[in-house]
Design brief:
Elements lengths: L7 H13 L13 E4 L2 E4 L1 E3 L2 E8 L22 E3 L26 E7 L10 E7 L15 H7 L2 E5 L4 H4 L14 H16 L5 E11 L1 H10 L2 H4 L5 E5 L8 E2 H14 L8 H5 L4 H12 L9 E2 L8 H6 L8 E6 L4 H7 L10 H9 L1 H10 L8 H11 L8 H11 L5 E6 L43 H20 L19 E4 L5 E3 L1 H4 L2 H7 L7
Parallel strand pairs: 2-5, 7-8, 7-9, 9-10, 10-13, 11-12, 13-14, 14-15
Antiparallel strand pairs: 1-2, 3-4, 4-6, 6-8, 15-16
Helix pairs in contact: 7-9, 11-14, 12-13, 12-14
Length: 539
């Protein structure tokens, strides 16, 4: 990493300028913009009621010999690090013609945003929210999520981070170290959490009141940390899981290692014994391209695996045995999750009236297709793609982005800890992709603009303002989320009480003007799905 320090040369230049101006003292920099971390001083910026510190390295660049190794300590620096700009996103290809690509492995950075009153900050330590970005474990960046609204509305210190993804963070290989094979991205996140533990008090945060939160792959990452108590106990004290099925079936290291072998072969590393060393010499883009070809259309080709110290047990097995971190959990997802991915594929693999049943057979097997069709007849929906998106959003065995698996996880976890279950159901949410020609609704990631101003899945942050009813809902959601981070009990002014998840009817629906409890299991036909998939949906 090229260090961004205030050099002795610049300091000397300032002294000369002062002498030439008659010795007048320049205004001292605001002490609130410089914070001393355990690796050196960082200088942030004050903007619109917050102090922002961006691009702080929390681990060494995982390049060369450090590819596919545990994150290593970053060397302390001298002087003051400029922490006013985000660090690079971790290596990734552009996806869906929307997201930005990156080839920069020097990407293990953390960002901190804290409220600033301008009157001197009190000694009281604020609750801390650590946000893990999504992106199907192959994309995304912390720069997509402005933290200021959450920090100000919740009077909280909010943290975000980058971590290795895809081929560099979640690809197993038979010759990688067995203890953390396929888990280096998760280990990056844990290194960041340890950084928070050591340093967040200097930014005004309480290291003993940390809420770990994330959406999509970020939510699934939160689940993986919950499932590794020997590795993560004490690093967080509450958890927020947005659209991540904590008890979705994981693949083992052995099952997924074939992908690593195939990637190695595609870049010319044919000898399995020397493949890791060989791959460490290959260009970033060559590895990204090979990994994309190997992953194909599999939405979760590089999802976390189990059977290591990083994730010891199959998810449902760990929860059933009580081998998870016992903290309060906010858990849920979006009503129309997978309509988003139907939209992404509509141009190339459209769902039509004519092939609707065939699509169901592909997703659920020929033996189940007619039963599913009877429950979800085309006549009940505005279009075939909307219907297929609704079916898969209710339940699919093929990924963890579905409402019945969210409810299943909430029920299982709720036997041991307090769980607050929700469904985001605002079908007037701003679109998160170009118009696919059918009704989208409350699709995957559509709640993010309610938490992160003008979220658009790009660094442009050019999403539209929310309509008035949706903005009111956003204010309610932010109050529930941040009060949970503060106390472990979500509440919002002039809003329904949110009790713990004890029965199907105690799920909070977030719909403008209609926030309140409802039977999410009935809404998403989980009783029906349980008859087809009892091994997955049995508590």
């Amino acid at each position: 990493m090229k260090m961004r320090t205030i050099s002795a040369f610049l300091a000397g230049g300032l002294a000369i300028a002062q002498l030439l101006s008659g010795g007048a003292q320049a205004a001292a920099p605001d002490a609130q913009t410089v914070v001393m971390t355990d690796h050196g001083a960082v200088r942030g910026a004050i903007r619109d009621g917050v102090r922002e510190f961006k691009g702080i390295p929390y681990a060494a660049p995982p390049t060369g010999e450090l590819r596919w190794k545990l994150p290593q300590p970053f060397k302390p620096w001298t002087g003051t690090l400029d922490a006013t700009q985000y660090g690079s996103a971790c290596p990734q290809l552009s996806r869906y013609g929307l997201t930005e690509a990156s080839e920069n492995e020097d990407c293990l950075h953390i960002n901190v945003t804290a409220p600033y009153s301008g009157k001197g900050e009190s000694a009281r330590k604020r609750p801390v929210i650590v946000w893990i970005h999504g992106g199907a474990f192959v994309g995304g960046s912390s720069a997509l999520y402005p933290l200021d609204i959450m920090a100000k509305s919740g009077d909280a210190v909010v943290v975000s981070l980058n971590y290795r993804i895809g081929v560099f963070g979640f690809m197993p290989h038979p010759q990688f170290g067995k203890d953390h094979n396929g888990g280096y991205g998760l280990e990056d996140q844990r290194a960041a959490l340890r950084w928070v533990k050591r340093n967040i008090a200097a930014f005004g945060g309480d290291p003993n009141n940390v809420t770990l939160a994330g959406e999509s792959a970020g939510a699934s990452s939160v689940c993986m940390h919950i499932l590794a108590p020997k590795e993560t106990t004490g690093l967080f004290h509450k958890a927020i899981v947005q659209s991540g099925g904590c008890v979705h079936t994981l693949k083992s290291v052995a099952e997924n290692s074939a992908k690593g072998t195939s990637v190695a072969e595609k870049v010319g590393c044919l000898d399995p014994a020397t493949a890791p060393a060989c791959m460490r010499t290959k260009a970033v883009n060559d590895l990204l391209t090979a990994a994309s070809e190997v992953g194909g259309s599999d939405l979760l080709a590089y999802a976390p695996v189990f059977g290591t110290k990083t994730v010891p047990l199959q998810a449902a097995d760990a929860v059933a045995k009580g081998k998870f971190v016992k903290v309060p959990i906010m858990n849920g997802g979006n009503r129309d999750e997978l309509r988003l991915y139907v939209a992404y594929s509509q141009a190339t693999h459209p769902v039509t009236d004519a092939n609707y049943r065939d699509k169901l057979a592909t997703e659920y097997g020929e033996v189940n297709a007619d039963a599913v069709l009877a429950q979800y007849p085309l006549k009940d929906y505005s279009s075939a793609p909307a219907a297929f998106g609704t079916v898969t959003s209710d339940f699919t065995p093929n990924n963890g982005l579905n409402n019945c698996i969210y409810l299943q996880g909430g029920k299982m976890l709720g036997k041991s800890v307090k769980v607050y279950e929700y469904v985001f159901a605002d079908r007037a949410a701003p679109p998160v992709t170009t118009d696919p020609g059918f009704e989208m609704g409350a699709v995957h990631s559509s709640e993010l603009p309610y938490q992160f101003l003008h979220y658009s899945n790009t660094i442009k942050l050019d999403g539209p303002d929310l309509a008035a009813p949706s903005q009111q809902l956003a204010d309610q959601m932010m109050a529930y989320w941040t009060s949970f981070a503060k106390t472990g009990m979500p509440s919002a002014p002039n809003s329904p009480a949110w009790g713990t998840f004890k029965a199907d009817g105690t799920v909070l629906k977030f719909d403008p003007g209609k926030v309140g409890n409802f039977d999410a299991s009935a809404q998403h036909k989980c009783g029906f799905w349980k008859t087809l998939y009892p091994k997955i949906l049995t508590e």
